[in-house]
Design goal:
heterodimer, A: mainly alpha, 10 helices, 0% strand, B: six-stranded mixed beta sheet, two-stranded antiparallel sheet, 9 helices, 8 strands
Chain lengths: 247, 227
């Protein structure tokens, strides 16, 4: 396992993929939170839930999305480029390959989530302060936002890995992640908030402390459910990888 | 490929497998009857029957990379990763030191291009990088699918010499190729497989004694098989 883990870390470090994805995320998060921070009326930004809502909607949601992309790319990139063949020739135990990918995706996802939530909190707070708004978040709120955002993104990286291993094709896997987080959960959130509470995107927001309608108000339960989804996704990905030909 | 089927003649170290069959599930060694779309899986999980390498299923080998080196496609690289890092990724997984990466880069004459991304490599360079990956673990058996594709005449000559040298040092090479004139110059032994059946298993010398070229033998056997 240790050897495969070192190999997977070398894969991450030896291309520009991770840096490019994180850079794109950082630009997008900063732009989006500044648009919200300066664009929304002051009356909608005075309370703690409102201010935190902006940070989580942008920083945690996009952090989860991009972490999911990193997880999915870690397997679909190998299938697309063909490097999965030499990978499996050296390590024919496919479960071991998926396990090592899960550990690296978990770490990369956590870092991406922390960066995303941190950028949203930093740029958003600066925007609020420049408009003369009183910042309602305390140190504990910021810590939950950033660490919860990191933990949620780590779980989403595993969901992305599992989804990528099942779908295998890069573009459909990426489209599925975007569609779920940016469209499907928005629709469920509007129409069926009681159901949406248990959706993986809403659970990520809950983990980071968001307390709006349609969001679980107990981060511990959200963490447990999200970890359950992540484990389920990785198990499905492992089964798909073990049973199907890689060509 | 069962070890018992390998190389009864110590001089016959380089094998030629011809007409790789596209049906799966034949009783001929599964490696030889692999669907070309799934060779790596045939090493790992055949769709029917059992594929044995040195008497064991591939995933059960203690050190796969130290036992078998295989090149199944000529372009299994991440375009943005350098040749050296491609090999390092595999060396780490196989528990091999980075010094071994430098040795195989030198062996396939890619040291000067090793830091460049693979997207800048010619097809011949990619073939050599694939070969370098297969050689990383100093395997006993090399399995190469169409290794001369994309090589210029100097590259073909180099590969021929390289494979003969590998065999002379005690290794076994299994080459799958459709370029009969070229392989006739390179190999000791020929396996002709068609429609999942082994039609011939002969040394090149035996074919020559029958007054047959490899091409003639191939056409005769496969035409008779088809009719």
């Amino acid at each position: 396992m240790k050897a495969q883990l070192r190999s997977e870390l070398c894969k991450l470090r030896s291309t520009w993929t991770v840096a490019s994805v994180v850079a794109a995320m950082l630009v997008l998060v900063t732009l989006a939170v500044l648009l919200h921070g300066f664009g929304l009326s002051a009356s909608r930004l005075t309370s703690l839930p409102d201010q935190r809502g902006v940070f989580t909607d942008v920083g945690v949601n996009l952090g989860a999305l991009f972490a999911g992309l990193l997880g999915a790319l870690s397997i679909t990139g190998e299938i697309r480029s063909g490097t999965i063949r030499p990978t499996l020739l050296v390590t024919p135990r496919r479960g071991l390959v998926i396990a090592a990918k899960a550990v690296t995706a978990l770490a990369a996802g956590f870092v991406a989530g922390v960066i995303s939530a941190g950028a949203a909190a930093g740029a958003g707070s600066a925007a609020f302060a420049s408009r003369g708004l009183t910042i309602q978040l305390g140190a504990g709120d910021y810590a939950q936002l950033i660490l919860g955002g990191g933990a949620a993104a780590a779980m989403w990286a595993l969901i992305g890995l599992g989804l990528g291993a099942v779908i295998r094709a890069q573009v459909p896997a990426i489209v599925a992640l975007f569609a779920w987080l940016l469209f499907v959960e928005n629709i469920i959130g509007g129409d069926l908030p009681s159901v949406n509470r248990f959706a993986p995107g809403a659970l990520a927001l809950a983990l980071a402390g968001q307390q709006r309608t349609g969001i679980l108000h107990t981060p511990a339960v959200a963490a447990f459910l999200l970890a359950f989804y992540a484990a389920l996704a990785v198990a499905a990905g492992r089964t798909a990888m073990t049973r199907r030909d890689v060509g | 490929m069962d070890s018992s089927q390998q190389d009864p003649d110590p001089k016959s170290k380089v094998l030629q497998q011809e007409g790789l069959n596209q049906n799966s599930g034949d009783e001929v060694s599964t490696l030889a009857s692999a669907d070309p779309g799934g060779q790596s899986d045939t090493l790992a999980e055949p769709t029917a029957g059992t594929a044995l390498v040195f008497g064991r299923r591939y995933p059960q080998l203690d050190h796969p990379a130290r036992t078998v080196g295989a090149v199944l496609e000529s372009n299994d690289f991440y375009p943005g990763r350098s040749g050296r890092n491609h090999l390092r990724v595999l060396a780490l997984a196989a528990g091999l030191p980075f010094s071994r990466v430098e040795e195989v880069l030198d062996a396939v004459r890619l040291v000067s291009a090793a830091a460049r991304p693979v997207r800048s490599y010619s097809l011949g360079m990619r073939q050599r990088l694939g070969l370098a990956a297969a050689l990383l673990g100093e395997p006993e058996l090399l399995i190469l699918d169409e290794p001369i594709n994309g090589l210029d005449p100097a590259g073909v000559h180099w590969l021929r010499t390289f494979l003969r040298g590998f065999a002379a040092r005690g290794g076994t090479v299994l080459v799958s190729s459709h370029v009969l004139a070229e392989v006739a110059q390179t190999v000791d032994r020929v396996l002709i497989i068609d429609n999942g059946r082994l039609l011939a298993d002969a040394t090149v010398d035996e074919l020559a004694r029958r007054g047959q070229s490899l091409e003639a033998a191939y056409l005769e056997l496969t035409t008779a098989d088809a009719s």
